[in-house]
Fold this protein.
Amino acid sequence: MTISFNQSPQNARILSVGAYRPPRVVQNGEIAPRIDSSDEWIQQRTGIISRHFASPDESLIDMAFKSAEIAIARAGLTFEDIDAVIFATISYPFQAPSAATELLTRLNNSTAAAFDISAACAGFCYGVAIANDMVRSHTAKNVLVVGAEKLSDYTDPDDRATAFIFADGAGSVVIGVSDHVGIGPTVWGSNSQTRDAIVLNPSYLEYKNNPGKLDIGWPNISQQGQTVFRWAVYAVAPIALQALAAAGMEPDQLDAFIPHQANERIIDSLVKSMKLPESVAVARDIRTTGNTSSASIPLAMDALLTERPDLHGKSALLVGFGAGLVYAGQVVELPPIPQKSN
Amino acid sequence: MALTQDEVLAGIKEIVVEVAGIDAGIIAMDKKFTDDLDVDSLSMVEVVVAAEEKFGVKIPDEEVTKMATVGDAVNFIVNNS
């Protein structure tokens, strides 16, 4: 028996990006009293001035759909043109079926391949890597990659280490066929020995089996700030530089740097550690969006392109890093000026 | 050869000046990083990583949390270099 695969690899690129931020803006002043903090302290520690929280009746999928419909329209495609959906999230409240299939029902698309990935703040870059490989190998033609989170459902408003960091939002890109290389090689991996540094605890089973126990409550995010900061800066900077080198580029050839928006202090230290020249535009969407985990890179990409339309079609280094600890980075060509704009 | 306390203190002063942007004159063994030198928990990570590079020592995260004063850091480095 001979199995044939007669198609040679084809190139892929990001065709479009779409973003959705829930309308409710939450200032530091609203967060600070419950954690005995202040606007100044939060800004100094994180660079965050405000963030968006979804309302109780606005679901993760509501947000994801709004970002997806913008991205699909900007690519000049219809919902039916999407033949695969990769949904990166850690805050979909169902184990099964997947968030990706719920999103498909909103898109009135009943046939596309669809699945979720759990790679936390690296999830979007994992999705870009997988989508690129799918298009390159003809497994799919137009892949919708979504990063969406409703972290306000999984954040303890009384936790002094996390309450001011996490937020809600959704971002989508469509990755499709290109006549040139639009996505460079992905450098990815993990440091699972530091798996405890960021966790959603307790497990659903512990919660179920211990009703009424005050110390075993609803699973919320907790993190060891210093451990995460140290890893995010000093381990991730070399990885980001490896992704740049893998694309055959030098730092002075890069147009933009869009890291996961974890904390502006991490972004500052990464830029310093990587010795990026001042000519590189650095995404700092964290200031008014907070940390939206898997959604942060597409949200920051959309914000950067809104602020700097000249960056459409230019190069950007993406790097995601987070709970796992897992990481992924790649150089991409930013999407062109939209064919249709919503 | 083991480092002396004076050598390490001089090195730590350089690092703290660089990270926190403060005057070297106010840095002394009894000064607290957070309260006296404007080095918060995240800046402390930058100080520690720079100190590891400068002195060739490994400073684990659990030790970092115990380092309240400049003297705590200097003594750890002297004892572990």
About this structure: The first helix of chain A runs from residue 28 to 31. The mean pLDDT of chain A is 95. Chain A touches chain B through 13 residues (CB under 8 Å).
